[in-house]
Design a protein that fits this description.
The protein has 596 residues and is an alpha+beta fold. It contains ten helices and 30 strands. It has six domains: 112 residues, Beta Barrel (OB fold (Dihydrolipoamide Acetyltransferase, E2P)); 72 residues, Nucleic acid-binding proteins (OB fold (Dihydrolipoamide Acetyltransferase, E2P), Beta Barrel); 74 residues, OB fold (Dihydrolipoamide Acetyltransferase, E2P) (Beta Barrel), CATH 2.40.50.140; 80 residues, Nucleic acid-binding proteins (OB fold (Dihydrolipoamide Acetyltransferase, E2P)), CATH 2.40.50; 83 residues, Beta Barrel (OB fold (Dihydrolipoamide Acetyltransferase, E2P)), CATH 2.40.50; 103 residues, Nucleic acid-binding proteins (OB fold (Dihydrolipoamide Acetyltransferase, E2P)), CATH 2.40.50. It is rod-shaped and about 170 Å long. The N and C termini lie far apart (119 Å).
């Protein structure tokens, strides 16, 4: 009652105030007691002090608080976090800001009182290094303002382990943090959520590493995705789930199977406690599709699959999830010349294949596409037996011969040695060009190696068997043209595509140091036939012996032979000595691999 009188009479004169107090305290109250009561009560109502009040009503957005001494204050309802918690009669601490003498009301604040009391309690109970909880109020320069009972500063660098793009996303959220610094003079506190997370993760990491074992199945959360795999938080420590351990099936990127913050179960594949590294597996939670693979895909069986990858050397065909086989480029066609598998197949194609080989340990299956069809080379030997005359186009030229297309996809090799009986051909381009149509004789067929040997010289009779030996007889003197000069002798063309060798020792009577001193290329000279060797296909000539015969005087028969030659006798036509080179079947075996 004393308080009510005092607060209601702050503007009264001293006589009236003293009289009212005597009435309230009793007439026998001493002057000293009245003075003490006045001093104590008025002292409590000084601006800047904390008072206890009682909620007596709610008017609009204001809460009316009775402070005693018939005085009331008004506090905005917004200073309560929970409006439903405001009840009439509740006691509340308020901060006295000023006394309004005209209206008899005082200006008070619940929020300021709470902050001062909370600061006092915090300073008394908390210390640097302690943990705290609070709600992020707003974004300020350099960080966030967090309410942990009093406003404290959370620097932007201490918000998270990895600094977020926008720290404003934390506004309105409850966080846990560690107290870094308490400045009592400035009433300033700095906290760190990052430090709290790091220490919590370290403790969790130690717990995980202490009891984790290979083979365990654990739950985790996907924290990050990379091209090579995903990092999974196991509850304090991250493990690596490599892309090859995500699925038995082919995966081009981890995002095809996982997403950030997804909770998954993984199997522990390996643990390195020293380096704090853990290898995880997802596909290991299901059965390996390569188990019993030989039973599902026996060699020789025909299956269908989808083309899922194409490389320079072949195409990978998916037979079932997690099982792929390789169709090598050489197994795509019996006859077609393929430079790249994309000429035959495209991604997504469904193809029929034959299982050629299965290697369970290496998880490899060799497949063939051409084996689905009949090998046309099985019919080549029947269709083209030796001595069959065929006509085809020159598809390609090589140093050793020409490749002639017999039919689509079937080539034969016309070797340079099988192009002419008499002419020495160094390169097939001397007599053929790409695209030419050529008539050939089939010399042999190697079905296993898929090779056909062809010849053009075999279209005519071998002149070395009869025509040449009967036309060029040792002792005859004939004319010829010098075609080539070497250090060991001179080659003389007796007729088109037929040459004889004039050895250096047969050039002149004297010793010849350099054949160029005796004859010139293109010169026409007389030579004597020394020998004819059909087996070696060689004719030996002599210039000096022809000169001897001239000096001694020619016989009429010798002169006629010298003038006539092979064509003069008319025994073998020029068609017989063809320019097409041929090669005997018994000669060196052709290498079909050279065809490319």
């Amino acid at each position: 009652m004393v308080d009510q009188i005092l607060i209601n009479s702050l503007e009264m004169n001293d006589d009236n105030l003293e009289a009212e107090l005597r009435e309230a305290l009793g007439t026998d109250t001493s002057d000293a007691s009245i003075s003490s009561a006045i001093d104590q009560t008025i002292g409590n109502f000084q601006a800047g002090s904390i008072l206890k009040g009682r909620i007596v009503g709610i008017v609009g957005d204001d809460v009316v608080v009775d402070l005693g001494l018939k005085s009331e204050g008004v506090v905005p309802i917004s200073e309560w976090d929970d409006r439903s918690a405001i009840d009439i009669g509740d006691k509340v601490d308020v901060w006295l800001e000023t006394v309004e003498s005209d209206s008899g009301l005082v200006v008070i604040s619940k929020r300021k009182a709470d902050r001062i009391l909370n600061w006092q309690r915090l300073v008394e109970t908390a210390k640097e290094g302690d943990y705290c909880k609070g709600k992020v109020m707003r974004k300020i320069k350099g960080g966030l303002l967090v309410d942990i009972g009093v406003p404290v500063f959370l620097p932007a660098s201490q918000v998270d382990i990895r600094r977020p793009g926008d720290i404003g996303e934390f506004i309105g959220t409850e966080i846990e943090a560690k107290i870094l610094k308490i400045d009592t003079e400035r009433r300033n506190i700095v906290i760190s959520r990052r430090k709290f997370i790091e220490e919590a993760r370290q403790a969790a990491k130690e717990r995980v590493l202490s009891d984790i074992e290979v083979g365990q199945v654990r739950k985790g959360t996907v924290k990050n995705l990379a091209d090579f795999g995903a990092f999974v938080d196991l509850g304090g420590i991250d493990g690596l789930l490599h892309i090859t351990d995500m699925s038995w099936d082919r995966i081009n990127h981890p995002s095809e199977r996982l997403r950030i913050d997804q909770e998954i179960e993984v199997k522990i594949l390996n643990v390195d406690r020293d380096k704090e590294k853990i290898a995880l597996g997802l596909k290991q939670l299901t059965e390996n599709p390569w188990e019993h693979i030989e039973e599902r895909y026996p060699v020789g069986s025909k299956v269908s699959g989808e083309v899922v990858n194409i490389t320079n050397y072949g195409a990978f065909v998916k037979l079932e999830p997690g099982v792929e086989g390789l169709v090598h480029i050489s197994e795509m066609s019996w006859t077609r010349r393929i430079n790249h598998p994309s000429e035959i197949v495209s991604l997504g194609d469904t193809v029929e294949v034959v299982v050629l080989e299965v290697n369970k340990d290496k998880q490899e299956i060799s497949l063939g596409m051409k084996q689905v069809e009949t090998n046309p080379w099985m019919r080549v030997a029947e269709k083209y037996p030796p001595n069959t005359i065929i006509e085809g186009k020159v598809r390609n030229l090589a140093n050793y011969g020409a490749f002639i297309e017999i039919e689509e996809g079937i080539d034969g090799l016309l070797h340079v040695s099988d192009m002419s009986w008499t002419k020495k051909i160094s390169h097939p381009s001397e007599v053929l060009k790409k695209g030419d149509s050529v008539k050939c004789v089939v010399l042999s067929v190697d079905q296993e190696k898929m090779r056909v040997a062809l010849g053009t010289k075999q279209l005519t009779e071998d002149p070395w068997l009869k025509a040449i030996p009967s036309t060029y007889i040792p002792g005859q003197i004939v004319k010829g043209k010098v075609t080539k000069i070497t250090n060991f002798g001179v080659f003389v063309e007796l007729e088109p595509d037929l040459e004889g060798l004039l050895h250096v020792s047969e050039l002149a009577d004297h010793k010849v140091e350099d054949p160029h001193d005796e004859v010139k290329v293109g010169a026409e000279i007389e030579v004597k036939i020394l020998r004819v060797d059909p087996q070696e296909r060689k004719i030996g000539l002599s210039k000096k012996r022809a000169e001897w015969a001239t000096e001694e005087g020619r016989q009429p028969g010798e002169a006629k032979a010298r003038r006539g030659g092979l064509h003069g006798k008319g025994e073998v036509s020029t068609d017989l000595i063809t320019s097409f080179p041929f090669r005997q079947p018994e000669e060196t075996e052709r290498d079909e691999s050279e065809q490319q």
